[in-house]
Amino acid sequence: MPWITAQEALAVLKVQPQTLYANVSRGRIRTKPHPDDVRRSLYNGEDVKRLAGRHAGRRSVADVATHTISFGEPVLPSGLSTIADGRLWYRGEDAVRLSEHAGLEETARLLWQVGKVDLAFPPTVRGMPAPANPFEAALLALARRASHDFPTVGRSHQILCREAAGLIGTLAAAMLGGGADGALPLHRQAALAWQAPDADDVIRRALVLLADHELNASTFAARTAASTGAPLAAGLLAGLGTLAGPLHGTAALGVQALAETARRIGARRAVHNWLSRGHRLPAFGHPLYPDGDPRAIALMSHFQPSAIYEDIRQAVVELSDNPPSADFALAALADRYGLPASAPFTLFALARSVGWIAHMLEQSARGSLIRPRAHYDGPALKQGEGEPPAA
């Protein structure tokens, strides 16, 4: 079987696109660029055929469940976002196209399904200086709200949307400071808080592109909290805590550290040293985007990264052939416009809070508890005295 297209591979495997991309990232299926379109890939037909044969037999429920956890098959229905054909979609709309004209407020209207209702995220506290530690400030602000806000159970969609808008205002005030004009869109509030008015438009694009991303780790945490009926603030708190991991929302910090080393010894040597120690390169490659993260491509087409970030990107492509992810674009953005080192995480958290809210609203409306089972692989179960051994 020759090299085949993604559509042909999916037809043979009978899986979702996410599963195809996951098998590519794990080295099970080889790929090469499409000769007529470098944005697309061809897939090795023999690899696809072999993998299809391996899974031809019926898998047990436990086996299927085990393989859904890490970039595997979908685990629950959602009408919010999906990744298909190497692109990110919000309720059927291409997120990259949406970022050409929309702000985070319009994206929230789309994801939350509030129609044409005016939606703003005004800071709830004014006159506060920008915090030294935006993450800590956000955690404290959300914890205060989570401790006294009402559960989501039995409350209307419109009421929850109004509460959600206020919560994002609370989050913005905590992470940016409360000095911004609440009548301004959130991207302008951020640009003014960071004294970088020329970054206004690229911040807007970043917020839209990062608003949602299927059922990632932080979204699953927020959605699980919502499934219990917890207040929206508690779900945001769960999402924010999960976002803080280096394999998720703080990958940009690794890029910033790599850039600091590259400034001293050169980008190629810095990347070489990183790889030679067996370290995973931060913010390069994404299992769901084997041909490149469209969010990074779209964002970096609207500003010129500094020379050191361009050198790092070229060195990584040369030494590992991994394209940059959205986290790299955020780090490059912050460097280009002189934003605080914490800006990439702040932008990620403010943007993704819109997606977390959307998933919590969807989960709350469905009214089911998320409670998976664990596949036990601990010590043998000890039988009580006098009990017959387990069959």
**What's the tally of helices?**
18
> Biggest sheet: strands side by side, in what order?
3-4-5
Q: Would you state the CATH class of the largest domain?
A: Mainly Alpha
pLDDT averaged residue by residue? 87
| Contiguous uncertain segments of 5+ residues | none
| Percentage of residues in strands | 5-15%
Secondary-structure map:
Layout: H1 6-13, H2 17-25, E1 31-34, E2 37-43, H3 45-54, H4 61-66, E3 81-84, E4 87-90, E5 93-94, H5 95-99, H6 104-112, H7 134-148, H8 157-176, H9 186-193, H10 200-209, H11 217-227, H12 232-243, H13 251-265, H14 267-276, H15 294-300, H16 307-320, H17 326-337, H18 343-366
Helix pairs in contact: 6-18, 7-8, 7-12, 8-18, 9-10, 10-18, 11-12, 11-18, 12-18, 13-14, 13-17, 14-16, 15-17, 17-18
